[in-house]
Structures are given as structure tokens and as C-alpha cells.
Amino acid sequence: MDFTDTPEEAAFRAEARSWLEANAPQAQPTGRLMSMEDPEAVKEQQDWQALKADAGWACLTWPEEYGGRGANAIQNVIWNQEESRFRTRVNIFSIGLGMLGPTIMTHGTEAQKARHLRPMLRGEEIWCQLFSEPGAGSDVAGLRTQCVPDGDDWVCNGQKIWTSGAHYSRWGALVARTDPDAVKHAGISYFILDMESPGIEIRPIQQIDGGAGFSEVFFNDVRIPGENLVGSINDGWRCAITTLMNERASLGTSVQGLGVEALIELARNTNWQDGTALDDPGVRRRLADFFIRSKGLQYTGYRSLTAISRGATPGPEGSIGKLVGAPLGQEMASFAVDLQEESGAVRGADAALEGAWQASYMGSPAMRLAGGTDEILRNIVAERVLGLPSEMRADKGMAFREIPTGSDR
Ligand SMILES: Cc1cc2nc3c(=O)[nH]c(=O)nc-3n(C[C@H](O)[C@H](O)[C@H](O)COP(=O)(O)OP(=O)(O)OC[C@H]3O[C@@H](n4cnc5c(N)ncnc54)[C@H](O)[C@@H]3O)c2cc1C
Questions:
Q1: Any residues with CB less than 8 A from the CB of 110 and at least 6 apart, and which?
Q2: Cα–Cα 20 to 30 A to 93, which of 57, 103, 209, 399?
Q3: Are 164 and 363 in contact (CB under 8 A)?
Q4: Alpha-carbon span 146 to 159, nearest angstrom
Q5: Neighbour-count burial for 350-388, b at 16+ CB within 10 Å, e otherwise
Q6: CA 235 to chain CA mean position, Å
Q7: Ligand 1 probe mutation, 94, 129, 132, most atoms within 8 A of CB
Q8: Among candidates 232, 197, 255, 213, which has minimal Cα distance to 94?
Q9: Per-residue confidence (pLDDT) for residue 148, from 0 to 100
Q10: Active-site residue flag, 247
Q11: Cα distance between residue 406 and residue 404, in whole Å
Q12: CB 217: neighbour CB atoms within 10 A?
């Protein structure tokens, strides 16, 4: 493992840092997450994205012809490290820029690339991912939303769920069934969906923290122009895999949440009996445990970085990062809320760090589901890293129409 920047990387880091110091609107040292429903916060993010785009810092790894910088993966990591000192890591463009843009670049037509990539990069048009359905989450290829041809168009009926940012997205990437007689992965197509089309109904889902960052989305005879098909008819699974591989790569190897240093700081600033929580041997033992596990995760992440810097592509072992980081983040947030005793139940401006740990605690279960649940990641590690036998797949080789469901058999 090599932890130090090369001279070129150090120069790149200095350039990034100096631009950020001159231009980043406001430091957010607590790592508080912005509310995804607040229109003002959305606008603020869009302004920041446009500023970055105009200076060539919007999406570093994208090719220059689409407004990117053509930077390598390590430069992108350096930029993210530097930007995270100023901004929260959650951003409303990550689905578009990290997952859907690369899918359009790989499988889209020249007209689709020309129409969509630049407004996406500048944050002018926000995108959402319409994959999961009530009966198709981990097994997304089991989706039932259907598109049937009608003249040059397609007509879509069905339902998606857990669509992050559906309510402020201008466009969506939709996977839908176009051939129910084919085996399940083979009868799917991938579409660009205008979220302002007649027949789309968006119903926000209330979360435990009172927010509503994601929604159910219903399609009632929604017309999709034929030119919005990405890739070929019934070849949508290949495009969906491109999206999902980019999602996995973007999740990275880090503790989800505010991090162990912030937790130590909280203990240092929490008054307990005659001193602070940090003076308590039991607290120190827990903090030491969190610290060791966090560092293990960080150094495992450096292993991947070193591999990337030598030109390797990250493999399925990347799943380990989220599998360890998401539960660890949840445990640390739970401990932080306990440390605050009765005040742990207080949220908002009156709470320590304006309730950042409470927000992290309430958001932490979601981190164990989004982008692959713990169990699915364990399956990936078992089958693709350890080489254990694969799960039984009872529907293998069966036409989708013939697969039994709870409702019809
Ligand atoms: C914060 C957040 C944001 C999201 N944003 C989006 C979005 O923008 N767009 C989108 O399309 N989706 C989104 N999702 C949905 C997400 O992709 C799904 O929640 C995820 O794929 C799991 O699917 P599910 O919820 O249907 O659970 P299911 O797949 O029904 O799983 C239920 C339980 O069964 C377990 N399980 C399932 N299959 C197996 C198996 N083969 N072996 C062992 N155990 C198994 C799971 O681990 C889980 O515990 C989001 C989810 C969250 C939490």
C-alpha cells in the first residue's frame, strides 16, 4: 500500500484545494446532511454544481467532450477527499452523474448523449433511478412494470417504489418489461423517462425522521417516445448492470455516517458526573473498538485505491466495504445517541451538533438496504470472492410469464 501522493497527485490536490478554498460556499464541519425535500437546498446544490461545472470540477472522470475533465480514478478520489472537507457527501446529482450518465455514455445514442449529458452535469436537470418495485428490489429483474409498443411510442403501466428524489427529478431511468415470454433478465428494456409526462403520479413516502426523500411512482398509460429507448429492445438488463456496477463502485469503502473522530469529539464535549464521557473507562473501551474497526476499514479502502492507482478495476471484494461500514456506522450512531442520555431524544437546533447524530441514527438502517442489502452483499462475497456454490435459482430458464407469484398461484 502506498499512502503518499506522487508529486503529480500532490500538485493536483493543491490545485483542487485552492479552488475549493476560494469558491466553496460554506464549510459544514459537522457533516450534517441537507434535507432533500427543501427546494432552497436543492437550488443551492444546483448553483454549486453549475459553479463547479463552469470551472471544470463538476464530474472529473467524465470525458471532456461531455463537460468532464477526463481525470483518472485517483484524481477523482483526491477531489472527493478535498471537497468533503467543505461539503456533505450526500448530493442530489450522484444518481445521475455517478450511475445514469455513465450508462447513457455506454449504451445511449449520440442524440441521447447530446441532449442529456451536459444539463445533467451542470445540475440543471436532476435524474432519478426507477428500478425497484414492491415485488422486485434485491431481485430487480423480477420487475413487473410493463411497456408495450404503440406506433413509434411505448405505453407504460405499473409502479416503482423507493425512488430517491423523484419529486424534484426532471428525468428518470426506467427499467420495464417488454417481453413477458422471455426469461426474466431477457425481456427487459431501459428507457429515459420524462418525469413531467402525463400519467405519472408521485407519492412521497414519509420516513422515520419526518422527511420524504423517496417516493412511490405510478404509471398510468404513460407514453414514452421510441427515441427514448436506451440500447436495444429487450437488452435493458445489460444497461441496468452498467447502472448497478457504477452504483456499487460509488458506495466506496468507508464508515457510513459521521465517523469515529466526530464520535470521540462528542464524548470529549459531553459532561458526565465529574468530568466528560471521555474520562469513563467503559466509554473509552467502546471508542477504542470503533476506532480500530474504522481504521481497518479505511486501510482496506486504501488497498483498493492502491490497486486503482496501478490500473486495476475494483472487483466484487468492494462489497466488503459497505457490508462492514454500514453496520459500524449504525452502531456508532446508536452509541452517540446513548452518550447524550435524555438529550439523545432531542432533535433539531436544541440538540448537540444540531441533532446530527440523531439524524445519522435514524438514517442508518437505510444504509444497510440501499445499493444492496447486507444479505445480498454476503451472497456476492460468498459466491464471487470466496467461490462458494451459488444460491438455488428456481426460476432459471423459465419464461417470466410462467414464474409463480403470490397473487396468481
Ligand atoms: C435510502 C434508500 C434509497 C433508495 N433509492 C432507490 C432509488 O433511487 N431507486 C430505486 O430503484 N431503488 C432505491 N432503493 C431501493 C433499494 O434498491 C432496495 O431497497 C434494495 O434493493 C432492497 O430491496 P427491497 O427493499 O425490495 O428488499 P427485498 O429485496 O424484498 O429484501 C427483503 C429482505 O430479504 C433479504 N433477501 C432478499 N433476497 C435475498 C437473497 N437472495 N438471499 C438472502 N436474503 C435475501 C434482504 O436482504 C432483505 O433483508 C433505495 C433504498 C433505500 C433504503
A1: none
A2: 209
A3: no
A4: 9
A5: ebbbebbbbbbbbbbebbbebbbbeebbebbbeeeeeee
A6: 24
A7: 132
A8: 213
A9: 98
A10: yes
A11: 7
A12: 27
Determine the Cα–Cα distance for residues 231 and 109; give it in Å rounded to an integer. Answer: 8
Distance between Cα 372 and ligand 1 center (Å): 6
Q: How far apart are the first and last CA of the chain?
A: 55
214 Cβ inside 6 Å of ligand 1: yes
Residue 128 CA, closest ligand 1 atom number = 8
Give the helix, strand, coil percentages of the chain, each rounded to 5. 50, 15, 35
CA distances from 29 to 57, 79, 85, 143, 305 (A): 21, 17, 7, 41, 25
Q: Tell me, what amino acid is at 193?
A: L
- Regarding beta strands 171-177 and 127-130, do their DSSP bridges make them parallel or antiparallel, or are they unpaired? parallel
The Cα 312–Cα 280 span in angstroms is 45
Q: What are the 10-residue block averages of pLDDT along the chain, 409 residues in total?
A: 83 95 68 58 88 92 92 87 72 90 96 97 96 96 97 98 95 98 96 98 92 94 98 97 82 70 94 92 97 91 76 75 92 96 87 89 93 93 92 88 73
- The residue from 44, 247, 375, 383 that is catalytic is 247
Domains and CATH numbers, the chain: 7-91 (no CATH), 127-235 (2.40.110.10), 252-385 (1.20.140.10)
Q: What burial class does residue 207 get, using C-beta atoms within 10 Å of its C-beta: 0-12 exposed, 13-18 middle, 19+ buried? A: middle
Phi, psi of 215 (to 5 degrees): -140, 165
Pocket residue to mutate for ligand 1, from 205, 256, 369, 379, most atoms within 8 A of Cβ:
369
Q: What are phi and psi of 291, to 5 degrees?
A: -65, -45
* Residue whose CA lies nearest to ligand 1 atom number 20: 137
Cell numbers representing residue 329 in the block: 456506522
Does the pTM of the predicted model rise above 0.90?
A: yes
Sign of CA dihedral 364, 365, 366, 371: positive
Output the residue whose Cα is nearest ligand 1's atom 43.
Answer: 375
